[in-house]
Amino acid sequence: MDARLLDILVCPLCKGPLVYNKNAQELICYGDKLAFPVRDDIPIMWADQARALTAEEIEAR
């Protein structure tokens, strides 16, 4: 994923920062506790496509 794109992307719900998880291919918003998928280097920023983070993932931060 392009670093310049990561610099400008924000969570579509809260407009907060996103953290890129390269292994899981996800953009994570810890504010909303959601992980947005990245498919073929394209972030899917729809709330209905995001998955909820587990308590373990939030604590591991």
Segments where pLDDT lies below 50 for 5+ residues? none
Q: Compute the CA-based radius of gyration.
A: 11 Å
Q: What's the total number of strands?
A: 5
Overall spatial form: globular
Q: Would you tell me the structural class of the helices and strands?
A: alpha+beta
What is the CATH architecture descriptor?
Single Sheet
- What order do the SSEs take from the amino end to the carboxyl end, as H and E? HEEEEEH
Number of domains: 1
Overall pLDDT level: 94
| Amount of helix | 10-25%
Biggest sheet character: 5 strands, antiparallel
Number of helices: 2
Beta-strand share of residues: 25-35%
Cα separation of the termini: 21 Å
- Classified by CATH, the class is Mainly Beta
CATH topology: N-terminal domain of TfIIb
Protein name: UPF0434 protein HV832_05220
Pfam families: Trm112p
Family: In the N-terminal section; belongs to the LpxK family.
Organism: Undibacterium oligocarboniphilum
Task: Summarize the model shown.
With 61 residues, this protein is α+β, with helices and mostly antiparallel strands. Helices cover 20% and strands 28% of the residues. It comes from Undibacterium oligocarboniphilum.
Secondary structure topology:
Layout: H1 3-8, E1 19-21, E2 26-29, E3 34-39, E4 42-43, E5 51-52, H2 55-60
Antiparallel strand pairs: 1-2, 2-3, 3-4, 3-5
Question: How would you describe this protein?
Answer:
This is UPF0434 protein HV832_05220. It comes from Undibacterium oligocarboniphilum. It is a single chain. The two termini are 21 Å apart. Strands 1, 2, 3, 4 and 5 form a 5-stranded antiparallel sheet that branches. The protein has 2 helices and 5 strands. The longest helix has 6 residues. 18% of the residues are buried. The chain has one domain: N-terminal domain of TfIIb, CATH 2.20.25.10. It is an alpha+beta fold and 61 residues long. 20% of the residues lie in helices and 28% in strands.
